[in-house]
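Below: protein 1.
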Amino acid sequence: MLRNIVLAAGVTTALLAAGPASAAEKKTIAVSIPAADHGWTAGVVYHANAAAKEINKAFPELEVIVKTSPSASAQVSAIEDMSATRKMDALVILPHSSEELTTPVKAIKDKGTFITVVDRGLNDPKIQDLYVAGDNVAVGYNTAQFLVEKMGGKGNLVVLRGIPTVIDDERIKGFKDGIAGTDLKILDIQYANWNSDQAFKLMQDYLAKYPQIDAVWANDDDMLLGVLEAIKQSGRKEIKFALGGNGMKEIIEKVMAGDAMTPVETPYPPSMIKTAIYLTAAHFAGHAPVRGSLKLDAPLITKANAAEYHFPDAPF
């Protein structure tokens, strides 16, 4: 997360140093993101709007437009409408789903638009000019390694997936790699769509189906909230750990308090959207091409370092 903040600050400084261009050279940067349907995306919307406000105020040669969409199909319509009604010099997109957005984004790319992809990668990475995301493999792997160590490499696990995206695949790969060669057994693994209510219901199903569950991994903190509530209502006592990921402040506070069931966390800051927008702006206003990939670290957050990741005034 610190790396993310430092990078954003550095890009801001570079933009300020560049100075304004003429109004005739004004560039449009469209930002397409999911609507705030859970905590993490609420943070994304917050940081995207903040970046747009700051850049539009400071740089008259740039116009940043933020559009939110409640579903993948709505997001496809939104970016197609923007592409049809205005010249988009750049599109910064956090896709609802990799599958449905890949072809529409490629069509926009083919018009000469600079493409920045954030978080949920497209199925064809050649489409993107810039990619900004957390290290999803490390989110899964570091969590798995904690469980291996604390559980002596033995026990029954249940896992909750998010939605079918590249980042979900990466998290699951990291987790499976992390427990490979141990006697930790995944009893069940199903999608709960990064939704607390769906996770609550799925965890209830797991609890009804499996008499012995030693640990749970919900690969997102919104789902973890639903899992914890289901465990609480069940009265089950054998579950040693229920872990998530993303760095939600409520979960960070559990780690800070030394919560026995949720003693660790992994970061995946929604502020990465702000970093992505600033990097895209720097491509046009900074007089230097910005291309490639930026992967943010995902170290294990423990009671010892949790305060560094706690932002009580943030929306997530």
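Below: protein 2.
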Amino acid sequence: MIDPKKIEEIAKQIGAVIPPKVREMADDVESKVKQVLQQKLSQLDFVSREEFDVQTQVLAKTRAKLDELERRVAELSAKDDSGN
């Protein structure tokens, strides 16, 4: 496996030989790309994983209550039908 420190050292050496204007331009482009990505992602309608998990639990509880109510309605309907 390659040592991460060695990779960082190589990256620094490469960065040192890149002309300052090119490095400045690359930094500027990276900054603009990050800005655009952040802006576009903030416009999307996302929820956090935590909120998703909470809503999933709420939905499961609601589904269980609905199933119980449907069972009770069917039971009451059966009693009503047999009473007539």
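The mean pLDDT is 86.
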